[in-house]
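Might you be able to check the C-alpha coordinates below? Thank you kindly.
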Amino acid sequence: MSDLSIGIAACLALLTFIYFGMHIGVALIVTSFVSVLMIKSGPVAARFVAAAANDAIRDYLFGVVPLFVLMGMFVSVSGVGRDTFDVFQWLLRRIRGGLGLATVASNAVFAAITGISIASASVFTKVAVPEMMRMGYTPRFSVGVVAGSSVLGMLIPPSLLMIIYGVIAEESIGRMFIAGLVPGIVLALGFAVLIIGMAYLVPHKVGNAAALIDVPSTETPGSAARKIIPIAALIVLVLGGLYGGLFTPTEAGAVGAAGSFAIALLRRRLTWKKLWNVLVETGYVSVSVLFLILAASLYSRMLALTGMPAAVTEMITTLGLGPWGFLAAYVAIVIALGCIIDSVSIMLIMLPIVLPVARAFGMDIVWFGVITVVAVEIGLLTPPFGVSVYTVKSALNDPRISIKDIFAGTFPFVLSMVAVLVLLVAFPSLSTYLARA
Protein backbone atom coordinates (compact mmCIF):
# COMPACT_ATOMS: atom_id res chain seq x y z
CA MET A 1 0.00 0.00 0.00
CA SER A 2 1.54 3.30 -1.10
CA ASP A 3 1.96 6.29 1.22
CA LEU A 4 -0.63 8.25 -0.80
CA SER A 5 -3.16 5.42 -0.50
CA ILE A 6 -2.62 5.40 3.25
CA GLY A 7 -3.31 9.15 3.36
CA ILE A 8 -6.56 8.76 1.41
CA ALA A 9 -7.62 5.83 3.60
CA ALA A 10 -6.87 7.92 6.70
CA CYS A 11 -9.17 10.73 5.52
CA LEU A 12 -11.99 8.28 4.80
CA ALA A 13 -11.47 6.55 8.16
CA LEU A 14 -11.53 9.94 9.90
CA LEU A 15 -14.88 10.87 8.35
CA THR A 16 -16.26 7.46 9.27
CA PHE A 17 -15.16 7.77 12.89
CA ILE A 18 -16.72 11.23 13.19
CA TYR A 19 -19.96 10.06 11.54
CA PHE A 20 -20.30 7.30 14.13
CA GLY A 21 -19.76 9.72 17.01
CA MET A 22 -16.06 9.54 17.89
CA HIS A 23 -14.69 12.79 19.31
CA ILE A 24 -12.92 14.73 16.53
CA GLY A 25 -9.67 15.06 18.50
CA VAL A 26 -9.52 11.35 19.30
CA ALA A 27 -10.38 10.49 15.69
CA LEU A 28 -7.57 12.71 14.41
CA ILE A 29 -5.00 11.18 16.76
CA VAL A 30 -6.05 7.56 16.15
CA THR A 31 -6.09 7.82 12.36
CA SER A 32 -2.83 9.77 12.31
CA PHE A 33 -0.98 7.36 14.60
CA VAL A 34 -2.18 4.25 12.74
CA SER A 35 -1.28 5.83 9.40
CA VAL A 36 2.23 6.74 10.55
CA LEU A 37 2.58 3.24 12.00
CA MET A 38 1.79 1.79 8.56
CA ILE A 39 4.49 3.96 6.96
CA LYS A 40 7.18 3.84 9.63
CA SER A 41 8.19 1.42 12.36
CA GLY A 42 6.58 1.42 15.80
CA PRO A 43 9.29 3.39 17.68
CA VAL A 44 9.43 6.00 14.89
CA ALA A 45 5.64 6.40 14.98
CA ALA A 46 5.71 6.84 18.75
CA ARG A 47 8.43 9.51 18.52
CA PHE A 48 6.45 11.18 15.71
CA VAL A 49 3.39 11.49 17.94
CA ALA A 50 5.46 12.70 20.90
CA ALA A 51 7.20 15.36 18.80
CA ALA A 52 3.89 16.60 17.39
CA ALA A 53 2.38 16.82 20.87
CA ASN A 54 5.44 18.61 22.24
CA ASP A 55 5.64 21.15 19.41
CA ALA A 56 1.91 21.77 18.95
CA ILE A 57 1.03 24.06 21.87
CA ARG A 58 4.24 24.92 23.71
CA ASP A 59 4.45 28.38 22.11
CA TYR A 60 3.64 31.44 24.23
CA LEU A 61 1.11 32.43 21.56
CA PHE A 62 -1.32 29.70 22.64
CA GLY A 63 -2.01 31.59 25.85
CA VAL A 64 -4.43 33.58 23.70
CA VAL A 65 -6.97 30.73 23.87
CA PRO A 66 -7.69 30.58 27.64
CA LEU A 67 -7.37 34.36 28.02
CA PHE A 68 -10.00 35.24 25.42
CA VAL A 69 -12.24 32.43 26.64
CA LEU A 70 -11.92 33.80 30.19
CA MET A 71 -12.80 37.29 28.95
CA GLY A 72 -15.92 35.96 27.26
CA MET A 73 -16.99 34.04 30.36
CA PHE A 74 -16.65 37.09 32.61
CA VAL A 75 -18.65 39.16 30.12
CA SER A 76 -21.39 36.52 30.04
CA VAL A 77 -21.90 36.55 33.82
CA SER A 78 -21.73 40.35 34.07
CA GLY A 79 -25.10 40.87 32.33
CA VAL A 80 -23.59 42.83 29.45
CA GLY A 81 -25.75 41.01 26.89
CA ARG A 82 -28.97 42.19 28.52
CA ASP A 83 -27.73 45.78 28.86
CA THR A 84 -26.46 45.92 25.28
CA PHE A 85 -29.81 44.72 23.97
CA ASP A 86 -31.67 47.32 26.08
CA VAL A 87 -29.53 50.14 24.68
CA PHE A 88 -29.93 49.13 21.05
CA GLN A 89 -33.65 48.52 21.56
CA TRP A 90 -33.92 52.12 22.72
CA LEU A 91 -31.76 53.51 19.90
CA LEU A 92 -33.57 51.62 17.12
CA ARG A 93 -37.11 51.69 18.48
CA ARG A 94 -38.50 53.94 15.71
CA ILE A 95 -37.13 51.87 12.80
CA ARG A 96 -39.26 49.16 11.23
CA GLY A 97 -38.10 45.82 12.62
CA GLY A 98 -36.15 47.69 15.30
CA LEU A 99 -36.04 44.80 17.78
CA GLY A 100 -34.56 42.54 15.11
CA LEU A 101 -31.97 45.20 14.33
CA ALA A 102 -31.26 45.57 18.05
CA THR A 103 -30.61 41.83 18.27
CA VAL A 104 -28.14 41.95 15.37
CA ALA A 105 -26.36 45.02 16.76
CA SER A 106 -26.19 43.49 20.25
CA ASN A 107 -24.82 40.24 18.84
CA ALA A 108 -22.18 42.19 16.91
CA VAL A 109 -21.04 44.00 20.06
CA PHE A 110 -21.20 40.82 22.13
CA ALA A 111 -19.15 39.03 19.45
CA ALA A 112 -16.37 41.57 19.88
CA ILE A 113 -15.80 40.36 23.44
CA THR A 114 -16.67 36.66 23.39
CA GLY A 115 -15.60 35.09 20.08
CA ILE A 116 -17.96 32.11 20.48
CA SER A 117 -21.16 31.85 18.43
CA ILE A 118 -22.78 29.40 20.82
CA ALA A 119 -22.36 31.86 23.70
CA SER A 120 -24.13 34.57 21.70
CA ALA A 121 -26.94 32.21 20.71
CA SER A 122 -27.47 31.12 24.30
CA VAL A 123 -27.45 34.62 25.81
CA PHE A 124 -29.71 36.33 23.27
CA THR A 125 -32.18 33.46 23.12
CA LYS A 126 -32.95 34.22 26.75
CA VAL A 127 -32.72 38.00 26.37
CA ALA A 128 -34.16 38.88 22.94
CA VAL A 129 -36.61 36.12 21.97
CA PRO A 130 -39.05 36.57 24.90
CA GLU A 131 -39.00 40.36 24.44
CA MET A 132 -39.61 40.15 20.68
CA MET A 133 -42.47 37.68 21.07
CA ARG A 134 -43.99 39.79 23.85
CA MET A 135 -43.98 42.83 21.56
CA GLY A 136 -45.76 40.96 18.74
CA TYR A 137 -42.94 39.56 16.56
CA THR A 138 -43.58 36.11 15.14
CA PRO A 139 -41.88 33.21 16.96
CA ARG A 140 -40.22 32.02 13.76
CA PHE A 141 -38.66 35.42 13.03
CA SER A 142 -37.66 35.93 16.66
CA VAL A 143 -35.66 32.70 16.91
CA GLY A 144 -34.35 33.06 13.35
CA VAL A 145 -32.79 36.47 13.93
CA VAL A 146 -31.08 35.29 17.14
CA ALA A 147 -29.68 32.10 15.60
CA GLY A 148 -28.72 33.90 12.38
CA SER A 149 -26.90 36.81 13.98
CA SER A 150 -25.14 34.56 16.49
CA VAL A 151 -22.66 33.55 13.76
CA LEU A 152 -21.08 37.01 14.07
CA GLY A 153 -19.28 35.63 17.12
CA MET A 154 -16.94 33.56 14.97
CA LEU A 155 -16.04 36.35 12.54
CA ILE A 156 -15.77 39.60 14.50
CA PRO A 157 -12.55 39.44 16.56
CA PRO A 158 -11.65 37.85 18.88
CA SER A 159 -12.73 34.60 17.25
CA LEU A 160 -11.78 31.05 18.23
CA LEU A 161 -12.13 29.92 14.61
CA MET A 162 -9.67 32.64 13.56
CA ILE A 163 -7.24 31.40 16.22
CA ILE A 164 -7.54 27.80 14.98
CA TYR A 165 -7.13 28.89 11.36
CA GLY A 166 -4.10 31.02 12.20
CA VAL A 167 -2.43 28.09 13.97
CA ILE A 168 -3.08 25.59 11.17
CA ALA A 169 -2.13 28.04 8.41
CA GLU A 170 0.86 29.37 10.39
CA GLU A 171 -0.51 32.88 9.90
CA SER A 172 -0.46 35.75 12.40
CA ILE A 173 -3.45 35.50 14.73
CA GLY A 174 -3.38 39.27 15.14
CA ARG A 175 -3.74 39.70 11.38
CA MET A 176 -6.55 37.17 11.30
CA PHE A 177 -8.40 39.07 14.02
CA ILE A 178 -8.03 42.37 12.18
CA ALA A 179 -9.00 40.77 8.86
CA GLY A 180 -12.31 39.59 10.33
CA LEU A 181 -13.38 43.06 11.46
CA VAL A 182 -14.64 44.55 8.17
CA PRO A 183 -16.24 41.29 6.93
CA GLY A 184 -17.98 40.99 10.31
CA ILE A 185 -19.38 44.51 9.97
CA VAL A 186 -20.42 43.80 6.36
CA LEU A 187 -22.22 40.64 7.47
CA ALA A 188 -24.00 42.51 10.28
CA LEU A 189 -25.07 45.19 7.78
CA GLY A 190 -26.28 42.44 5.45
CA PHE A 191 -28.46 41.06 8.24
CA ALA A 192 -29.78 44.57 8.97
CA VAL A 193 -30.71 45.12 5.31
CA LEU A 194 -32.44 41.74 5.29
CA ILE A 195 -34.51 42.57 8.40
CA ILE A 196 -35.56 46.00 7.11
CA GLY A 197 -36.41 44.48 3.72
CA MET A 198 -38.57 41.80 5.35
CA ALA A 199 -40.26 44.39 7.58
CA TYR A 200 -41.35 46.37 4.49
CA LEU A 201 -41.88 43.62 1.90
CA VAL A 202 -43.25 40.73 3.98
CA PRO A 203 -44.23 42.32 7.31
CA HIS A 204 -46.56 39.43 8.19
CA LYS A 205 -43.50 37.17 8.47
CA VAL A 206 -41.86 39.56 10.93
CA GLY A 207 -44.66 40.61 13.28
CA ASN A 208 -47.84 42.59 13.67
CA ALA A 209 -47.98 46.22 12.54
CA ALA A 210 -47.76 47.66 16.05
CA ALA A 211 -44.62 45.67 16.83
CA LEU A 212 -42.61 46.86 13.86
CA ILE A 213 -42.29 50.52 14.85
CA ASP A 214 -42.13 52.70 17.95
CA VAL A 215 -41.45 49.95 20.48
CA PRO A 216 -41.76 51.41 23.98
CA SER A 217 -38.62 51.67 26.09
CA THR A 218 -37.86 52.98 29.56
CA GLU A 219 -34.25 53.87 28.70
CA THR A 220 -32.95 57.42 28.93
CA PRO A 221 -29.73 58.84 27.47
CA GLY A 222 -28.15 58.69 30.93
CA SER A 223 -29.09 55.10 31.68
CA ALA A 224 -28.09 54.00 28.18
CA ALA A 225 -24.68 55.62 28.59
CA ARG A 226 -24.11 53.92 31.94
CA LYS A 227 -24.89 50.56 30.36
CA ILE A 228 -22.87 50.90 27.15
CA ILE A 229 -19.75 52.82 28.26
CA PRO A 230 -18.04 49.93 30.13
CA ILE A 231 -18.41 47.46 27.29
CA ALA A 232 -17.46 50.07 24.66
CA ALA A 233 -14.35 50.89 26.66
CA LEU A 234 -13.43 47.19 26.83
CA ILE A 235 -13.82 46.78 23.06
CA VAL A 236 -11.76 49.89 22.34
CA LEU A 237 -9.08 48.77 24.79
CA VAL A 238 -8.71 45.26 23.36
CA LEU A 239 -9.23 45.83 19.64
CA GLY A 240 -7.70 49.30 19.66
CA GLY A 241 -4.60 48.03 21.41
CA LEU A 242 -4.38 45.08 19.06
CA TYR A 243 -4.83 47.13 15.89
CA GLY A 244 -2.60 49.94 17.15
CA GLY A 245 0.25 47.52 17.83
CA LEU A 246 0.24 48.15 21.57
CA PHE A 247 -0.55 44.51 22.41
CA THR A 248 0.22 41.13 20.97
CA PRO A 249 -2.89 38.88 20.68
CA THR A 250 -1.92 37.14 23.94
CA GLU A 251 -1.44 40.45 25.76
CA ALA A 252 -4.76 41.70 24.35
CA GLY A 253 -6.43 38.59 25.78
CA ALA A 254 -4.89 39.26 29.19
CA VAL A 255 -5.97 42.91 29.16
CA GLY A 256 -9.46 41.89 28.03
CA ALA A 257 -9.77 39.24 30.74
CA ALA A 258 -8.70 41.76 33.41
CA GLY A 259 -11.10 44.39 32.05
CA SER A 260 -14.08 42.03 31.90
CA PHE A 261 -13.28 40.82 35.43
CA ALA A 262 -13.35 44.44 36.62
CA ILE A 263 -16.71 45.02 34.88
CA ALA A 264 -18.20 41.93 36.54
CA LEU A 265 -16.94 43.11 39.96
CA LEU A 266 -18.19 46.68 39.52
CA ARG A 267 -21.63 45.40 38.52
CA ARG A 268 -21.63 43.11 41.56
CA ARG A 269 -22.53 40.12 39.39
CA LEU A 270 -19.60 37.93 40.43
CA THR A 271 -20.06 35.72 43.48
CA TRP A 272 -17.51 33.16 44.63
CA LYS A 273 -19.66 30.41 43.14
CA LYS A 274 -19.91 32.20 39.78
CA LEU A 275 -16.16 32.86 39.79
CA TRP A 276 -15.48 29.18 40.35
CA ASN A 277 -17.90 28.22 37.56
CA VAL A 278 -16.24 30.72 35.20
CA LEU A 279 -12.78 29.31 35.89
CA VAL A 280 -13.94 25.70 35.50
CA GLU A 281 -15.81 26.45 32.25
CA THR A 282 -12.79 28.35 30.92
CA GLY A 283 -10.66 25.30 31.65
CA TYR A 284 -13.08 22.98 29.87
CA VAL A 285 -13.29 25.14 26.74
CA SER A 286 -9.55 25.94 26.63
CA VAL A 287 -8.44 22.34 27.07
CA SER A 288 -10.90 21.22 24.38
CA VAL A 289 -9.57 23.79 21.90
CA LEU A 290 -5.90 23.13 22.68
CA PHE A 291 -6.44 19.37 22.46
CA LEU A 292 -7.94 19.87 19.01
CA ILE A 293 -4.98 22.02 17.96
CA LEU A 294 -2.60 19.30 19.16
CA ALA A 295 -4.57 16.63 17.25
CA ALA A 296 -4.66 18.84 14.14
CA SER A 297 -0.88 19.26 14.27
CA LEU A 298 -0.42 15.49 14.28
CA TYR A 299 -2.93 15.10 11.44
CA SER A 300 -1.18 17.75 9.33
CA ARG A 301 2.22 16.08 9.81
CA MET A 302 0.76 12.70 8.92
CA LEU A 303 -0.73 14.06 5.69
CA ALA A 304 2.56 15.72 4.78
CA LEU A 305 4.32 12.40 5.39
CA THR A 306 1.96 10.60 3.00
CA GLY A 307 2.42 13.26 0.32
CA MET A 308 -1.33 13.78 0.02
CA PRO A 309 -1.38 17.63 0.00
CA ALA A 310 1.18 17.72 -2.81
CA ALA A 311 -0.78 15.07 -4.74
CA VAL A 312 -4.04 17.01 -4.35
CA THR A 313 -2.32 20.21 -5.49
CA GLU A 314 -0.94 18.47 -8.57
CA MET A 315 -4.31 16.86 -9.36
CA ILE A 316 -6.24 20.13 -9.15
CA THR A 317 -3.63 21.91 -11.24
CA THR A 318 -3.82 19.13 -13.83
CA LEU A 319 -7.63 19.26 -13.96
CA GLY A 320 -7.39 22.87 -15.05
CA LEU A 321 -9.97 24.16 -12.56
CA GLY A 322 -7.98 27.30 -11.97
CA PRO A 323 -8.09 29.27 -8.72
CA TRP A 324 -11.77 30.26 -9.01
CA GLY A 325 -12.90 26.75 -9.87
CA PHE A 326 -10.92 25.39 -6.94
CA LEU A 327 -12.37 28.03 -4.59
CA ALA A 328 -15.94 27.32 -5.73
CA ALA A 329 -15.49 23.58 -5.22
CA TYR A 330 -13.88 24.12 -1.81
CA VAL A 331 -16.65 26.42 -0.55
CA ALA A 332 -19.32 23.99 -1.79
CA ILE A 333 -17.64 21.09 0.06
CA VAL A 334 -17.28 23.12 3.27
CA ILE A 335 -20.94 24.17 3.23
CA ALA A 336 -22.00 20.57 2.54
CA LEU A 337 -19.84 19.30 5.42
CA GLY A 338 -21.43 21.93 7.64
CA CYS A 339 -24.71 20.02 7.33
CA ILE A 340 -23.26 17.02 9.16
CA ILE A 341 -20.24 18.03 11.30
CA ASP A 342 -19.20 21.04 13.38
CA SER A 343 -17.14 24.06 12.36
CA VAL A 344 -13.89 23.13 14.08
CA SER A 345 -13.95 19.60 12.67
CA ILE A 346 -14.38 20.92 9.13
CA MET A 347 -11.37 23.20 9.47
CA LEU A 348 -9.18 20.54 11.06
CA ILE A 349 -10.02 18.04 8.31
CA MET A 350 -9.94 20.31 5.26
CA LEU A 351 -7.26 22.93 5.85
CA PRO A 352 -4.17 20.68 5.89
CA ILE A 353 -5.29 19.40 2.47
CA VAL A 354 -6.38 22.64 0.77
CA LEU A 355 -3.91 25.21 2.12
CA PRO A 356 -1.05 23.94 -0.08
CA VAL A 357 -3.40 24.23 -3.07
CA ALA A 358 -4.37 27.79 -2.13
CA ARG A 359 -0.71 28.73 -1.80
CA ALA A 360 0.09 27.09 -5.15
CA PHE A 361 -2.52 29.33 -6.79
CA GLY A 362 -1.00 32.39 -5.10
CA MET A 363 -4.06 33.13 -2.96
CA ASP A 364 -3.78 35.47 0.00
CA ILE A 365 -3.92 33.14 3.01
CA VAL A 366 -5.53 35.76 5.26
CA TRP A 367 -8.33 36.31 2.72
CA PHE A 368 -8.67 32.56 2.26
CA GLY A 369 -9.11 32.25 6.02
CA VAL A 370 -11.95 34.78 6.09
CA ILE A 371 -13.69 32.95 3.23
CA THR A 372 -13.23 29.67 5.10
CA VAL A 373 -14.69 31.00 8.35
CA VAL A 374 -17.77 32.48 6.64
CA ALA A 375 -18.39 29.27 4.67
CA VAL A 376 -17.93 27.19 7.81
CA GLU A 377 -20.30 29.44 9.76
CA ILE A 378 -23.08 28.83 7.24
CA GLY A 379 -23.01 25.25 8.49
CA LEU A 380 -24.05 26.48 11.96
CA LEU A 381 -27.47 27.31 10.49
CA THR A 382 -28.07 24.47 8.02
CA PRO A 383 -29.90 21.21 8.78
CA PRO A 384 -29.54 18.59 10.04
CA PHE A 385 -26.55 19.58 12.24
CA GLY A 386 -27.00 23.35 12.79
CA VAL A 387 -25.25 23.81 16.14
CA SER A 388 -26.58 27.36 16.67
CA VAL A 389 -30.11 26.19 15.92
CA TYR A 390 -29.95 23.44 18.54
CA THR A 391 -28.37 25.88 21.02
CA VAL A 392 -31.32 28.25 20.57
CA LYS A 393 -33.79 25.39 20.99
CA SER A 394 -32.06 24.21 24.16
CA ALA A 395 -31.81 27.68 25.70
CA LEU A 396 -35.40 28.60 24.79
CA ASN A 397 -37.05 25.50 26.25
CA ASP A 398 -40.40 26.39 24.63
CA PRO A 399 -42.36 23.39 23.22
CA ARG A 400 -44.37 25.73 20.99
CA ILE A 401 -41.29 26.43 18.85
CA SER A 402 -39.91 23.40 17.02
CA ILE A 403 -36.52 22.77 15.46
CA LYS A 404 -38.24 23.09 12.08
CA ASP A 405 -39.44 26.60 12.99
CA ILE A 406 -35.91 27.68 13.95
CA PHE A 407 -34.37 26.29 10.75
CA ALA A 408 -37.10 28.02 8.71
CA GLY A 409 -36.46 31.28 10.57
CA THR A 410 -32.72 31.14 9.86
CA PHE A 411 -33.11 30.38 6.14
CA PRO A 412 -33.18 34.07 5.04
CA PHE A 413 -30.02 34.64 7.08
CA VAL A 414 -28.30 31.73 5.33
CA LEU A 415 -29.10 33.39 1.99
CA SER A 416 -27.71 36.68 3.31
CA MET A 417 -24.51 34.93 4.39
CA VAL A 418 -24.12 33.38 0.94
CA ALA A 419 -24.52 36.85 -0.64
CA VAL A 420 -21.88 38.31 1.71
CA LEU A 421 -19.58 35.38 0.96
CA VAL A 422 -19.83 36.12 -2.77
CA LEU A 423 -19.08 39.79 -2.01
CA LEU A 424 -15.98 38.88 0.01
CA VAL A 425 -14.75 36.60 -2.78
CA ALA A 426 -15.29 39.32 -5.39
CA PHE A 427 -13.60 42.04 -3.31
CA PRO A 428 -10.64 40.54 -1.37
CA SER A 429 -9.60 43.97 -0.11
CA LEU A 430 -12.55 43.91 2.31
CA SER A 431 -10.67 41.19 4.18
CA THR A 432 -7.05 42.17 3.58
CA TYR A 433 -6.89 45.98 3.66
CA LEU A 434 -6.71 46.40 7.45
CA ALA A 435 -4.67 43.23 7.95
CA ARG A 436 -1.97 44.37 5.53
CA ALA A 437 -2.03 48.05 6.54
In short: The first helix runs from residue 3 to 19. The radius of gyration is 22 Å.
